[in-house]
Amino acid sequence: AQSVTQLDSQVPVFEEAPVELRCNYSSSVSVYLFWYVQYPNQGLQLLLKYLSGSTLVKGINGFEAEFNKSQTSFHLRKPSVHISDTAEYFCAVTPNTGGFKTIFGAGTRLFVKA
Amino acid sequence: DVKVTQSSRYLVKRTGEKVFLECVQDMDHENMFWYRQDPGLGLRLIYFSYDVKMKEKGDIPEGYSVSREKKERFSLILESASTNQTSMYLCASSLTGRFGNTIYFGEGSWLTVV
Description:
The complex is a heterodimer.
Chain A: E1 3-6, E2 10-14, E3 19-21, E4 23-26, E5 31-38, E6 44-50, E7 56-58, E8 64-68, E9 73-78, E10 87-95, E11 103-104, E12 108-113
Parallel strand pairs in A: 2-12
Antiparallel strand pairs in A: 1-4, 3-9, 5-6, 5-10, 7-8, 8-9, 10-11, 10-12
Chain B: E1 4-6, E2 10-13, E3 19-25, E4 31-38, E5 42-51, E6 54-57, E7 64-70, E8 73-78, E9 87-94, E10 104-105, E11 109-113
């Protein structure tokens, strides 16, 4: 079984400051890792994903994430945030053995202040 | 552009009513999902379907049923709505569950049961 823990429920940050949203997971098998973003009153959309290869993954809107297998983490970062980045961010894992079960974290709400 | 469309964005229903939430995808995806989203709980899987007329229970199927008569359409049914089913419901779809495929979400349906 898999589980995902997003360590911060809310992260307030000033515009143009850097941000890191933390995600840890546990799994008995290898997994694929995802970050999704949900803007107000919308569904989720993919920000980036790690399947294999380079552990640093770049996504849309200037976000990137680093897979750390030894620490079972997949933290999301952006060097300079904008007001428009205000949204809820979900970390998710899917076992790479196939199947349909994607496990989502509880979400981190990012507030970007002017 | 890929599209998952949920027929109703906002619904208010009375306790005991039968409620239908409809979802259509235009990407020819095999898999379709219904999630429930509540604050602090993230996304919880209600049901998923990997083919026409095929369905599997997710984590919280009690009080819900689903129907998939056509590949592009997946319906969620609340047989007798209760106030604890007040929530945001998200429909989603993806290609076959292997290889870390992206999940595509609809914009969500806000259901209030009074």
